Amino acid sequence: MNVEKLKACSLFLLDMDGTLYLGDQVFPGAVDFIRTLTESGRDYIYLTNNSSRAGTDYVSRLQRLGFPCRPENVFTSGMATAMYLNENFPGASVYPVGTAAFMNELRSYGVALSDGESAQVVCVGFDTELVYEKLERAVHFLRRGAAFIAANPDWVCPMPENEVLPDCGSICALLTAATGVEPLFIGKPNRSMVDLISAKTGVPNGQICCVGDRLYTDIAVAVNAGAVSVLVLSGETTREMLPQSSVKPDYVLADVMELASVLGNSQS
Ligand SMILES: [Mg+2]
Predict the structure, then answer these.
(1) How much is the pTM?
(2) What is the DSSP letter of 4?
(3) Distance CA 75, CA 161 (A)
(4) Residues, CB-to-ion distance under 5 Å, ligand 1
(5) Of 21, 153, 258, 268, which is most buried with the most CB atoms under 10 A?
(6) Would you write out the chain's pLDDT as a tens digit for each of its 268 residues?
(7) Taking Cα atoms as reference points, which of 128, 119, 79, 76 lies closest to residue 96?
(8) What's the gap in Å between 98 CA and the centre of ligand 1?
(9) How far is the CA of 234 from the centre of ligand 1 (A)?
(10) Distance (Å) from CA 144 to ligand 1 centroid
(11) What is the DSSP string of 115-143?
């Protein structure tokens, strides 16, 4: 394995669920992996498609699990969605289908939320507080021509003991079935997640490495953005799934412990 391209990366975008932990169960060596990044002079951002929580929720969650984390180390699909709305729909009134945390995140970026008849955008997140009335309102606005923007395309959110929760992609599929309108997804694999971080940090995409366990989001975002990708087999992807996928990771490793040993080893 030629690891030159991997070792040249100075910024690591880290998926969390299935990569660093599952639920509250931290994977062995995951905290030490973050230390290896710091000690080798590399930076990191915890990158999540989970739009049910705000960035600040992740800071406290990661710290509670023992990971070093400052506010600037977290970037969520909710944050990227707020930035996208500000850039592409400035001043528009937005009907949110999302958690209270998601709505607060949008508001903190100055997005104007509304459930009035003037809604120009329907913005959907991973709404773990979903009630039927919200779907009904969203369908109402979409049928009248509102834009359909969604935070993340994930069908399900993995949970311990092989359980899953219906995620933003599944909620959007319901709305598409009812209206015929397809959403634009802002989170991974949309390259804007990487582009926004590159613009903010000044690190070119080619020196950014995306690490994750899911081919159609974590690895696809790297491919789309021209970044380097590492698939870890600690989550949903098995080695048997690789040949069937059109999305090809640059590197396939067992877990972030193995990645730490590759990066920490000065003899490549
Ligand atoms: Mg994951």
Answers:
(1) 0.90
(2) H
(3) 27
(4) 15, 17-18, 213-214
(5) 153
(6) 799 999 999 999 999 989 999 888 999 999 999 999 999 999 999 999 999 999 999 999 999 999 999 999 999 999 999 999 999 999 999 999 999 999 999 999 999 999 888 899 999 999 999 999 999 999 999 999 999 999 999 999 888 788 999 999 999 999 999 999 999 999 999 999 999 999 999 999 999 999 999 999 999 999 999 999 999 999 989 999 999 999 999 999 999 999 999 998 764 4
(7) 119
(8) 20
(9) 9
(10) 35
(11) -STT--EEEE---TT--HHHHHHHHHHHH
Q: 183 C-alpha to center of ligand 1: Å?
A: 22
What is the whole-number distance in angstroms between the Cα of residue 107 and the centre of ligand 1?
Answer: 27
pLDDT at position 64: 97
18 CA distance to ligand 1 middle (Å): 4
C-beta neighbour count of 141 within 10 angstroms: 24
Instruction: Please tell me the distance between residue 89's alpha carbon and the centre of ligand 1 in angstroms.
Output: 30
* Confidence (pLDDT) at 266: 60
Q: How far is CA 158 from CA 7, 16, 194, 236, 245, in A?
A: 30, 11, 23, 8, 20
Structural domains present in the chain? 4-49+188-264 (3.40.50.1000), 78-185 (3.40.50.1000)
Place of tokens 């958690």: 99
Centre of ligand 1 to C-alpha 237, Å, is 9
Could you tell me the distance, in angstroms and rounded to a whole number, from the CA of residue 17 to the centre of ligand 1?
4
Structure-token match 């080893």, residue found: 265
Q: How far is the CA of 120 from the centre of ligand 1 (A)?
A: 32
Ligand 1 centroid from CA 116, angstroms:
36
Place of tokens 């490549």: 268
